[in-house]
Amino acid sequence: MPNDPTTAAPPASLPSAFVEACSRALPPRRFSTDPADCLPYGSDNSRRTMLPQAIAIPDTAEEVQAIVKACAEHRIPLTTRGRATNTVGGTVPVKHGLVLSLERMNRLIRMAPDDRYAEVEPGMLNAELQSIAGEHGFFWPPDPTSAAYCSIGGNLGCNASGPRAVKYGTCRENTLGITAVDGQGRLLKTGVYTTKGVVGYDLTRLLVGSEGTLGIITSAVLKLTPVPASKATVRAIYDSIEGSARAIARVMAQPETPCALEFIDRNAIAAIRAGARGTQVDLPANAAAMLMIEVDGSRESLSSAISAVSDAASGDGLVELRQATDAGEIAALWATRKALSPALRHIASKKINEDVVVPVSRLPELIAGLDALAEKHQVHIVNFGHAGNGNMHTNLLGEPEDMERMHRCLDDVFDLVLSLDGTLSGEHGVGIEKRPFIDREIPAASLDVMAELKRVFDPHGILNPGKLLPDRI
Fold this sequence. Notes:
Number of strands: 18
């Protein structure tokens, strides 16, 4: 990446007064300046690394406040960290400073099934919350691929979602309230415990997706949804990208909203076949694109839902349509989709993984444009993603010697997406990786307002510096 911020020279030593303040706030086992202790906290799933000068592992919101106040007083950069599963460098401490890990703050504060919410600390894993909610007949809709090991705080930080967002929404639509510490060490309480509430500004939705630049989430009130009684999956295979794209638009235009609508292009299908390594891959030879369509609801309504999405998926280019209603059949159909990510590892050693979004009606133009850019730059591009809301995971693949060409291609990919009324990120966030490009999407006046908001929450600019917004404070 050009102008890589993780190559910056290390700063001067931390002030002794700052170290003493943090040492008073936390016991030795939870605060350290030893480089050996700090090193594991310097990287994330972007594979970028920057050594922090200190790590702090608080156990309570009061301890978070104490650390933030020390950082604010001594102007020490502070990067908040969950499980570091993000792919855009959002938790890499590019300004060194202190990394605040919320791994110990992983408790259930309150489970209120009658009121359909759970209040949790940010370090709780997504999968653990789903298990707890499931015992009461509920689930929390955001379901990123990394659900087994990503944290709720990280999900909220970048507004992560996953396949279910097409029907149930993202973190923003499923978070009722937040408690957070701002850049001055103030404890803010936003939102409500109810599904309706209009008192004051909506700071909850502002904090969700702010990538730790406005505040450090210490707890969240999450809206739960009842687990549907039944579920069914339809796999539709097409002999052309255009046919599948038209089918996506038809599926989303009819009344039965699927709970997942996943798209896999011909290059992704080839990757599945290549990664299968001799095992049986149950796909027709002329498969150029595939849709995985899942519907849920009551047992009585499921039959009509399956019929509606199947009718919408049918049309020119359809090669095969397969339905599954029992758990074994559903798992077998989804096995093809789940085989994709591991299969990409066999294609190239380098991967740029983007999560662009365009209006559903413009998906055909996006896919055609990406094919043209792959040919222009001689870059292998594999596309799959959450087609129901136009969220495409575009993977640029190559070897180390191809990286310059891949980045030139990425530059054109972003221009293509914006020309189609799209956005540069649907769920991964901005972090380091997309920060140089956001002024193409957000006008200067809007960026100025965002910078002013940042100064209100974080007047000293200590919270996750070098991320999300251009330097304006």
